[in-house]
Design a protein that fits this description.
27% helix; 11 strands; 4-stranded antiparallel beta sheet; alpha+beta; 5-stranded mixed beta sheet; globular; 247 residues; single chain
């Protein structure tokens, strides 16, 4: 039998299943907690540290990462204390030092009233990548494993194996789609898509004529037994809706 637990977040009570992450519990109450590395379609990683909250359990308070911390028993959670705000400001400043041109970070800086950066502590080269790992997890989720972390500390980067155009890449651009800062560039020109140093030929939808997938994507779909899509997602959705008869 599923164990349900009562928790209080910013004075509001909610009952959730044991093991539910604080971030999900807060969402049930409509309480927004800022995140950078979190994405609902990907496994949580907790490496950006922006979603910190203050948790009180058995009379003791501590900071916790909301996307990773599970509800294990009755607890009270605070998402907007001064301690939490200071922790988030520190995280935003660290990311801004590396990527001062990232719009998502600039927006967070305005929201949290962060002073302009001291130029002495800003990286010389702004590559927009905040090392959140979303792209790595997206590629892993698709079974391609074409990206990974290399290096340590400040020099840590995300690259394909041996920093060469990845052989297993399908050109699906899922990595670019989940990137919160736009660090991963995709170039599309005509029926050609270029990403990670490789070019892919795009396939047209026979119905609307729009390019919707690479040849490699369709080939993998066929190999996996999923069948090769004959239409783009939008046209398939339209056709399925047209087949539904009102009761």
């Amino acid at each position: 039998m599923t164990e349900m637990i009562d928790v209080t977040i910013d004075g509001k009570k909610v009952t959730v299943e044991k093991g539910t992450k604080i971030l999900a519990a807060a969402k049930e109450l409509g309480i927004e907690i800022p995140t950078l590395c979190h994405h609902e379609a990907l496994p949580p990683d907790g490496n950006c540290r922006l979603c910190q909250v203050e948790v009180e359990e058995r009379g003791k308070r501590k900071l916790a990462v909301a996307c990773m911390y599970p509800v294990r028993g009755p607890m009270e959670i605070f998402t907007d204390t001064e301690r939490v705000m200071d922790a988030r400001r520190s995280v935003i400043r660290l990311h801004l030092n590396r990527c001062p041109q990232a719009e998502v970070l600039q927006s967070l800086a305005r929201e949290y009233n962060i002073e302009p950066l001291d130029e002495r502590f800003v990286a010389e080269h702004d590559d927009l990548c905040i090392r959140c790992g979303r792209c790595v997890r997206a590629c892993e989720a698709l079974g391609n494993n074409c990206l990974g972390f290399a290096g340590r500390g400040w020099d840590r980067i995300i690259v394909p194996p041996f920093n060469e155009p990845p052989v297993g890449c399908l050109g699906c651009a899922s990595c670019a789609e989940v990137c919160p800062t736009g660090a991963i560039k995709v170039r599309e020109e005509g029926n050609i898509c270029e990403i990670w140093g490789r070019e892919f030929r795009l396939v047209r939808c026979p119905d609307c004529g729009e390019y919707f997938a690479t040849e490699e994507q369709l080939e993998k779909a066929d190999t996996c037994g999923a069948g090769v899509p004959d239409l783009c997602p939008r046209c398939r959705k339209r056709d399925e809706a047209g087949r539904i008869k009102p009761v």
